[in-house]
Specification:
The complex is a heterodimer of chains A (473) and B (475). With 473 residues, chain A is an alpha+beta fold. Chain A is built from 13 helices and 16 strands.
Chain lengths: 473, 475
C-alpha cells in the first residue's frame, strides 16, 4: 500500500482536536481575489498538517465550489471536482435527499442558504482556549481583511467528557485510516485511505474520483502538484485532499427529553427519569455515558464514567434487535456485521464502504442534557462535520438511505429517530420508532424532530501542496 | 395464483407531434408527482407503468442502426394480457388517444374503437428478453389488501390491553380471532399461493462449482492426453465423460475467447460521474427521490458481432430461467430492493433497454448492484459498448448461482461493475429520462410486500411458540 503523505494532509482529518478547548470557524467570502490568493499563499506553510504533533493552536482551511471559482480555477478544472461538491448542499434534489424541509429549509438558514451571503472559504482556528484563537486570528486579520469579507462566525468547542447537548457521549466509533500511523482500532474500523483521502485506494480497491488539472493554461504554478496516481497525464488536485461536510444542527434538548418523558406513563419522577433515559438510549443505541446497548442492554452500569466500548457486533449478540433496536441511530449509521440482509462477513466489507470520519463540536451553553435537567439557556446545538472522499456514497448515503428512509431493513415507517424525522410529514405518513421485544415489539408513534438545520455547506480540504498551488492561481 | 407479466409497446412518434406529446406527458407527470393523478388507478391490474420518449439523444453512444423518435410504453401487470390491454384502452381511453395520436399508425378519431385501439397496441408490442418479479404471484389487489391487514393488526397489537404474561401463542390466537371476526379480511383465510422456489444454500452452490472447476481443469486436460482407456469403460460412462468434458472445455474456450479476443480489445468507458453532462444528470435528478421508490430506464448499444450477441443471449437465458425459479425471494441477482426489472432487445438486437422499479435511491440501488452482484451485472452489460473493462466476468458469471464468489479468485474477477466510479458514470450516462412513471404502491417496499404475505399466511395457521414469536416480530 502507498504510504500516506502525512505532511501533505490537513491535521483535522486525522486528529479530532478534542484537546483544543475552543475553536472558531470563519466563513469567508472572497472580496479581492488577488489579496485572497496572497493570504492563501502566505498561510499555506502555517496550515497544520498531520505529520506535526499537537501544538497550542491548529489552523485548517476548506473551500466551497464558489471559493475555488472566485480564486480563479477555470470551468474545465472545476468540472473535475465531484458533482456533489460542485452543486453544493442546496439544490432541490439534495433538499429531498437530506430532508431539509420546514424549519430546516435552506431558505431559513443562517448561513449557506440561498438567502444568505455566499460562503467561499472556511478558516478553522483551534486553540487551547478562546484567547489562543483570538491571538492567532489577530495575526492573520490584516491580510484576511484585505482579501475576504467575513460572512459568518461559528464559535464552538467540545463539551466536557465528549458529550453532546442531548446528553450522550459522542464520536466513539471512528474509522481509522490504514497506514496513517494512528493505532489500528480493530473491529472493522480500519479503513482503506481512499475512503477519506483522494489519491489512495478505497474499499473497492480502486482510486476514488479525484479533481484533476485538466487545463493548465493560465492556471497557476503547477510544479508543486502531484501526478495522478490513477494513470492519467494530468496533475492531481485531489491527492491528499478530502471533502468536508459541515451542518449546523440546532438541538431542542428540552423538547427531546419532554417527548421521551411523555412516552413513559410512569407513576413517579424517578421512574419517569429512568424510563425516559432507557428510551433515549434505545433511540441512540448507546447509553448517555457511551456504553452500547448490545453489551449493556438493561442499564448504564456506571453513568458517571464514560465508556469507550466499541468492540461489539450485532449478528450474533443481537440478531433480533432486542437489545439495540434496528431503528436506533448507531445501528443505522454503522450496521457493522448486519448490513441489510447480507451475511456477517460480507456485511463488514460493505459497511466499510459507507463510513465517515466525524468531526463534531458543540455551540451554545456548555449544557449536557439529561432526564433530570434539560433546559439550556439559549440556542444550543452541534456543528456536525465529517470527512470523506465521496460525499454521495458516504455522507448523503448515510443521511438518506440509512437516516431518512423509513424503509431501513424491514421497517415500514421508521426514520432515524435522532436525525431522520420530518417536522411536518406529508399527510398519511407515519413516523414510528419500533423497539423489538421478546414477544411483541413496542412502538413509539408520532416521532418529533428535535434537530433543526441552521446552515451547511460542502467543502474541499486541499493538501498543503494544492493550497500553495491555489495561492498561485 | 395470479402471475405478473411485462408489456412493452414501442411506437414511432410523429415528428410534427413530438412537442405536443412531450407536453401531454409532462402534464400527467406533474399530476403524478403532486398526487393529483386519478386515471391510472382505474386499471386495477397495473403494478407499474411508464412512458419514455426514446430518441437519438437518449443514446450515450452512436446507435448501431439509425433510430427515429419512439415512444416506449411499459407495464407490469396481473394476469391475462388481453384483459390488461382491454383495461388500458377502455379505462384510460383519453390518455391513450391523447398520447398515441402523436404516434404513427394510431387509428383516426372516427375509427377508434376498443378493438382498433387494442390492435394498435398489439401491433407495436414487442418481446421482453428477460423479466424479473420481486414478489411473484402478488397482484396489485393482494398487495393493497395485505398491507391493510398488516396495518390493522399493527394497530390492534398497539391498542389492545395485553395481559403482561401473555405468551406469543396466545397473542397470535387473539390476533387471529380478531381478524376472523372482521368480514373485510375474510379473503385472508385463503392461503396466498407462492411459486415454488429453489433456494439453494450457498454452500451447495459453492461445493458444486468447486467440483465443476476441478473437473474443468483436470478432466479436460486428462481427456486431451487420452489418459483414460475408454475400452474399459461402459458406453454410458464414456459418453458422459466425453460429454461433460467437451461441454466444460467449450465453456473454458469461450471464456478465454471472450476475454482475449473481445474484452481486452474493446474500447471501454473511462468517464467519471463528475465529467458527465450536467444538464442531463440534473434532468434525471429532477424526478428522483420524490417517493420511497424510484425507477430506472436505460438504453445501451450492443457491441457488434455474433459473439457478443450470443453471449448476451446466454445471459438472458440464465436470467429468465433462474430469476423465475431460483434465488428469488425478493432478490434479483441477490439485490433485495427490486420490485420488477426487465431487459428488452430492440432494433434487431442491436440495442438493449433495461427497466427497473426499486426501493431507495439511485446511489443505493447501484451500490447494491455492485456490492451484491457486480459479476452478474458485468456479465450482462459487458456485451454493450463502452462498459468499463471487465476481466473474465463475461462468461463465468452466467453460470447458475454465480453471484457467489470463490474465495481467492477476486484477482481474476475485477473491473466492470467493481470499477465503481466508472461503472456509476456508465450507468448515469446510459440512463434515459422517464416522462411518466406510475405505481399504485410507491410507499410499500418489496420487503414490506413479502413480509405482509408472510403475515397473512402465518396468521391463519396454528403456530408453536417459536413460530408465533417470528410472526409477532413481523410488526
Amino acid at each position: 500500500m502507498t504510504p500516506i503523505e502525512l505532511s501533505e494532509i490537513q491535521a483535522y482529518l486525522l486528529n479530532d482536536l478534542k484537546e483544543m478547548g475552543y475553536s472558531r470557524y470563519y466563513l469567508l467570502k472572497v472580496k479581492d481575489a488577488t489579496a485572497a490568493k496572497k493570504l492563501i499563499a502566505s498561510i499555506a506553510g502555517s496550515i497544520s498538517n498531520a505529520a506535526v504533533s499537537a501544538q497550542d493552536t491548529s489552523l485548517n482551511i476548506g473551500f466551497t465550489n464558489t471559493g475555488l471559482i472566485a480564486l480563479g480555477l477555470n470551468e474545465v478544472n472545476m468540472h473535475s471536482f465531484s458533482r456533489e461538491f460542485r452543486e453544493g448542499m442546496v439544490t432541490p434534489h439534495r433538499q429531498r435527499l437530506l430532508g431539509d424541509f420546514d424549519s430546516s429549509d435552506p431558505s431559513k438558514w443562517q448561513w449557506g442558504g440561498p438567502a444568505n451571503e455566499r460562503v467561499d472559504v472556511m478558516l478553522l482556528i483551534f486553540g487551547k482556549n478562546e484567547s489562543g484563537v483570538d491571538n492567532l486570528f489577530q495575526q492573520l486579520k490584516q491580510e484576511l481583511d484585505a482579501g475576504f469579507h467575513t460572512v459568518h462566525i461559528l464559535n464552538n468547542k467540545p463539551l466536557p467528557n465528549d458529550r453532546e447537548h442531548f446528553g450522550f457521549r459522542d464520536g466513539i466509533s471512528q474509522p481509522v485510516i490504514k497506514g496513517s500511523g494512528i493505532k489500528p482500532a480493530g473491529n472493522n474500523n480500519d479503513i482503506n485511505p481512499g475512503e477519506f483521502l483522494m489519491g489512495y485506494e478505497n474499499e473497492y480497491d480502486i482510486f476514488p474520483a479525484s479533481p484533476l488539472l485538466l487545463d493548465d493554461k493560465n492556471q497557476g504554478n503547477k510544479e508543486s502538484l502531484a501526478a495522478d496516481v490513477s494513470g492519467s497525464s494530468f496533475k492531481d488536485l485531489g491527492r491528499n485532499g478530502t471533502y468536508f461536510v459541515l451542518r449546523q444542527l440546532e438541538q431542542d434538548v428540552d423538547g427531546f427529553w419532554k417527548f421521551l418523558k411523555q412516552q413513559t406513563n410512569a407513576p413517579d419522577t424517578k421512574t419517569i427519569n429512568e424510563e425516559s433515559t432507557m428510551l433515549a438510549a434505545k433511540m441512540m443505541g448507546r447509553w448517555p455515558n457511551g456504553a452500547p446497548l448490545v453489551t449493556n442492554p438493561d442499564n448504564e452500569n456506571d453513568p458517571a464514567n464514560k465508556s469507550d466500548e466499541n468492540n461489539f457486533s450485532y449478528y450474533k449478540s443481537d440478531p433480533e434487535g432486542e437489545k439495540c433496536p434496528f431503528g436506533s441511530h448507531i445501528r443505522r449509521m454503522n450496521p457493522r456485521d448486519q448490513f441489510e440482509e447480507s451475511p456477517p462477513g460480507i456485511s463488514l466489507k460493505l459497511t466499510r464502504r459507507h463510513r465517515i470520519i466525524r468531526r463534531v463540536r458543540s455551540y451554545g451553553e456548555d449544557f449536557i442534557g439529561s432526564a433530570e435537567n434539560h433546559k439550556p439557556n439559549g440556542e444550543v446545538g452541534l456543528l456536525f462535520g465529517c470527512f470523506m472522499a465521496n460525499i454521495s456514497k458516504q455522507f448523503e448515503f448515510l443521511q438518506y438511505t440509512w437516516g431518512n428512509s423509513p424503509k431501513f431493513k424491514r421497517l415500514y415507517d421508521d426514520p432515524d429517530p435522532i436525525i431522520g424525522v420530518r417536522e411536518c410529514p406529508a399527510a398519511g405518513v407515519k413516523q414510528n420508532f419500533t423497539i423489538p421485544q421478546k414477544t411483541v415489539n413496542k412502538v413509539i408513534p408520532d416521532l418529533q424532530s428535535f434537530v433543526t438545520v441552521k446552515g451547511g455547506a460542502y467543502f474541499f480540504f486541499p493538501s498543503v501542496s494544492v493550497l500553495k498551488f491555489l495561492g498561485t492561481l | 395464483m395470479i402471475k405478473q407479466h411485462p408489456l412493452i409497446i414501442l411506437s414511432p412518434v410523429r415528428k410534427d407531434k413530438l412537442e405536443t406529446l412531450d407536453m401531454r406527458l409532462s402534464v400527467i407527470r406533474e399530476k403524478l408527482q403532486k398526487g393529483t393523478e386519478t386515471e391510472f388507478r382505474k386499471v386495477p391490474t397495473l403494478h407499474y407503468g411508464r412512458w419514455v420518449i426514446l430518441s437519438r439523444d437518449s443514446f450515450r453512444d452512436e446507435p448501431a442502426v439509425p433510430v427515429g423518435i419512439r415512444l416506449i410504453f411499459s407495464t407490469n401487470f396481473d394476469g391475462d394480457k388481453d384483459n390488461h390491454l382491454n383495461e388500458l384502452v377502455t379505462n384510460l381511453t383519453k390518455y391513450f388517444d391523447d398520447i398515441y395520436e402523436c404516434c404513427e399508425g394510431y387509428p383516426e378519431p372516427g375509427a377508434r374503437t376498443t378493438e382498433s385501439r387494442k390492435n394498435y397496441l398489439e401491433k407495436y408490442s414487442i418481446k421482453t428478453s428477460a423479466f424479473y418479479n420481486g414478489a411473484p404471484g402478488r397482484s396489485v389487489q393482494q398487495i393493497h389488501q395485505e398491507q391493510a391487514l398488516r396495518e390493522y393488526i399493527w394497530n390492534f397489537i398497539k391498542n389492545n390491553k395485553w395481559d403482561k404474561n401473555a405468551t406469543a401463542v396466545e397473542m397470535h390466537r387473539a390476533i387471529r380471532k380478531e381478524v376472523e371476526s372482521k368480514a373485510e379480511f375474510a379473503w385472508s383465510k385463503q392461503k396466498a399461493e407462492l411459486p415454488r422456489i429453489f433456494n439453494l444454500p450457498n454452500i451447495v452452490v459453492f461445493i458444486g462449482y468447486t467440483i465443476l472447476l476441478l473437473i474443468l481443469f483436470f478432466f479436460t486436460t486428462a481427456l486431451m492426453l487420452i489418459f483414460i482407456d475408454f475400452s474399459k469403460l461402459s458406453f454410458i460412462a464414456s459418453f458422459l465423460l466425453i460429454f461433460i468434458s467437451l461441454f466444460l472445455g467449450l465453456i473454458q474456450l469461450w471464456i478465454l475467447f471472450i476475454h482475449f479476443f473481445h474484452e481486452r480489445r474493446d474500447k471501454n468507458g473511462t468517464l467519471t460521474l463528475s465529467q458527465l453532462d450536467d444538464k442531463k444528470v440534473n434532468e434525471l435528478k429532477k424526478t428522483e427521490d420524490l417517493f420511497p421508490q424510484n425507477q430506472f430506464t436505460q438504453v445501451a448499444v450492443m457491441k457488434p458481432g455474433i459473439v457478443r450477441s450470443f453471449n448476451f443471449w446466454i445471459w438472458m437465458l440464465r436470467t429468465k430461467v433462474l430469476a423465475g425459479r431460483v434465488f428469488i425471494k425478493g432478490k434479483l441477482l441477490n439485490i433485495p430492493t427490486i420490485h420488477f426489472a426487465r431487459w428488452v432487445r430492440i432494433d434487431n438486437g442491436k440495442h438493449v433497454l433495461f427497466f427497473s422499479n426499486f426501493d431507495g435511491n439511485w446511489q443505493q440501488y447501484l451500490g447494491d448492484f455492485i456490492d451484491q452482484s457486480g459479476w452478474g451485472l458485468s456479465g450482462i452489460f459487458s456485451n454493450t459498448i463502452n462498459f468499463p473493462k471487465t476481466h473474465f466476468m463475461g462468461v463465468l458469471g452466467a453460470l447458475p448461482g454465480m453471484p457467489i464468489k470463490f474465495p481467492g479468485t477476486n484477482f481474476l474477477l475485477t473491473g466492470g461493475a467493481y470499477d465503481e466510479e466508472h461503472f456509476l458514470a456508465w450507468s448515469r450516462s446510459t440512463q434515459v429520462p422517464t416522462q411518466v412513471w406510475y405505481c399504485p404502491y410507491k410507499h410499500i417496499s418489496i420487503k414490506n410486500i413479502n413480509n405482509n404475505t408472510s403475515i397473512r399466511n402465518e396468521l391463519h395457521k396454528d403456530l408453536n411458540d417459536a413460530q408465533a414469536k417470528i410472526f409477532l416480530k413481523r410488526f
